[in-house]
Design brief:
It contains ten helices and eight strands. It is of the alpha/beta class. Strands 1-2-4-3-5-6-7-8 form an eight-stranded mixed sheet, sandwiched between helices. Helix 2 crosses helix 3. The radius of gyration is 17 Å and the shape is globular. The two termini are 31 Å apart.
């Protein structure tokens, strides 16, 4: 990342919350949306590779990093945050979301945020996975009782979550409640996704848990213009070097190309 020059800034969301971002690279705008416990800094390895072709904007979701956290929390406020970042990135900015960031990106587009193509890596929906649903309920209950350390430990024990916790994860544990809110009841939101008319690439890892891969297929089927791609040997700890060329190829395609399954 040392060879890529980053410029930091802030944009103000609709409710007055300052949202911090980093911009680097040059070309068509691309916004990176982090998942649970993620920050703009955590997106730098992937962003550095994508910056060879795109003007990458990575931001701290509210309650993280240098961004504010005006209460009370609502998913609608996070969508407004992303809309403000897209406005700063440039008209028609593409979106890439990892984990819950993918779910947030899709919800934002369904709500009318004017983004271009969208790619997502393993949004953590639960498809016929009672254990995943139960774990999330327990995490939510622990957070509700103020037991953030225990909630974080349980969350990180999920095989669908990257194994190496992000720097500062303990300080960000309270924002897990925000990610749970973005996921709603945890199932694939078919009615909401029917309103996503952008081209979408859904990516999963070939060595990821079965439930994660099942959810990726269900998500692809629920989207009007989506295709699916599996990265052989990859897990929730996806290698930026494996993911970046796939995203670059997809995002560089002409918008009129017919989507299909891979």
């Amino acid at each position: 990342m040392n060879e890529v020059s980053r410029v930091g800034g802030r944009v103000t969301s609709r409710d007055g919350t300052p949202i911090a971002y980093e911009r680097y690279g040059g070309g068509p705008p691309l916004v990176l949306v982090s998942g649970a416990l993620g920050t703009a800094a955590a997106e730098r390895p992937l962003g550095a590779l994508l910056a060879r072709r795109f003007s990458v904007v990575a931001y701290d979701r509210r309650g993280r990093g240098r961004s504010g956290d005006t209460g009370p929390y609502a998913v609608e406020r996070e969508i407004e945050d992303l809309a403000a970042v897209v406005g700063e990135a440039g008209a028609g900015a593409a979106l890439h979301g990892t984990g819950t960031g993918g779910a947030l990106a899709l919800a934002a587009v369904a709500a009318g945020v004017g983004a271009g193509a969208v790619s997502v890596y393993e949004p953590p929906y639960a498809v016929e996975d009672a254990e995943a649903v139960e774990r999330r309920l327990r995490v939510a209950a622990l957070l509700g009782r103020g037991r953030t350390a225990a909630a974080l430990e349980l969350f990180l024990a999920d095989p669908a979550v990257p194994t190496a916790p992000w720097a500062g994860a303990r300080e960000l544990a309270g924002t897990l409640a925000y990610d749970l809110a973005v996921l709603g009841d945890g199932t694939v939101p078919e009615r909401l996704l029917a309103g996503v008319h952008a081209r979408v690439l859904v990516v999963d890892g070939g060595a990821s848990p079965v439930g994660t891969r099942r959810a990726a297929r269900a998500l692809t089927a629920a989207l009007p213009r989506a295709r699916h791609r599996t990265l052989t040997g990859q897990t929730p700890d996806v290698s930026p070097h494996a993911l970046a060329p796939v995203l670059t190829g997809f995002l560089a395609e002409e918008d009129g190309e017919t989507a299909g399954a891979a």
